[in-house]
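Q: Hi! First time doing this. I have a protein sequence and I read that you can turn it into a structure. Is that right? Here it is:
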Amino acid sequence: MSTENSTPSKQSSVNRPLALWYFLFIGALGAIAPYLAVCLQNAGASGTATGVVLAIVPIGLLLGSPIGTLLADRSRQPIWVLRLCIALSAVATLALYLAPDWRFMAPAAALLALARAPAGAITDNIAMQTTGASGYGKVRLWGSVGFVVICWAVGMSLDRWPSSPILVCFVLLCGLLLATERLNRGTIEREASSGSIRTLLADKRLAAMYCVAILHSSTVAIYDRFFALHVSTIGLPSKVAANALALGVSVEVAVMAASGLLLRRLGAMKLILIAVAVGIPRWWLCGTITDSAGLVAVQALHGLSFGAWWIGGIALVAEQAPRGLRNSAQGMFLAAGHGIGQLVAMLGAALVLDRASTSTIFQGLSAVSVMALLLALGWLARTEQQPAR
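A: Yes, that's right. Below is the predicted 3D structure, encoded as C-alpha cells:
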C-alpha cells in the first residue's frame, strides 16, 4: 500500500478519536512503566526479583505482538482483537492492584505485557489507513503528550499515594476501551490473510528493517532505562534527567507534528537513516559531557532518534507490507525493536553495568549506532520497494 496514494482523505484537521486513543494508551504506559519497579519493591520484591519481572515486558512484546496482530489479520476483525487486548490489559492491571505481594504481581505483569503488545501495532495500521502517512504523526504525537503528562502527574503523587501508578493505569485503560468504540471502522481494510510471519521475514526489505530496528531500538532502550542513573552517577541533580526528558519529548512532538512535510520532502528511508545516524554523536556526547546544560541540550536529538525513526519506520513498513498482513507487519516491527531490541539491551546492561561506568556504556552505544547505520545503508537502503501484494 503506498502511503501517498491510499484512499483515505488526508485532512489537515487532527483525527480526534485516534488522538484520544493514543493519549490514553501511551498515557497508561507512562503511568505504570517508569514506576513498576517501585511498586514491586513496595510489595516486597528483591532487586533480583524486580529485574526478572521487568524482563517480562520485552518478552511479552516479542511474543504477544506477532500473535495478536496475526490474529487481527486472520480474523479480519482488527477492532475486535483490539478491544480484547485492552480488556485483558485492564483485567491484568486490576490483578496487579489486588495482588497481596509481588509473587502474585509477576503473572499479572506477564498478562499485561502480552495483552497490550498487539494493541499499538494494530492501531498504527488503523491510523495509517485512516489518515495516511502524512497525517499519522499528527495523531501519534498525542501519545507522547499523554506519556509526559501522565508520567509527571503520577510521579507527583507517588509519595502520598504509592498505588497511584497501577490505579491510574487501570482507569486510563477503562477509558481506552470506550475510546476504541469511536474509531472509524469504515476506512479499515479487511483483506483476507494469505500468508504468515514467514512471509514477512522472506521479504528482504522488511527483514532488513526489522534487523535495523533491533540495533537502533536497543540504544534507545538503554537511554530510557539508564539515563537517570547516569545523571546520578556523574553527580548531577535528578532534575537534569527530568529536564532532558521534557526537552527530548518536546522535540519529538514537533517532529511528529511536521511528519507530513518531512515525509514529502525526505521520504521514509531518509528519515530512518537520519534517525540512526544521529545516534552516533548523541550517545558519544551523552557519555562525555558532564555539565548540566550541555547534557540536557544533547537530548534535543531524541526528537530525531525516536520521532523521525518512528515516523519513517511505520511509513516504510506500511508501504512494504503485503495485503492481508498489514497488522502483522507492524506487529513484527514492534516485536523487533521493543521486544528483541529491549531484551538485548537489558541483557547487555546486566553483563556490563557492574564492570563499566555509565559514561563508557553510553559511549559504547555510538558503536552500536555505527553498526545500525552500516546495516541500514548496506542492506535496507539497497533493497527495492515492492508494490503491495
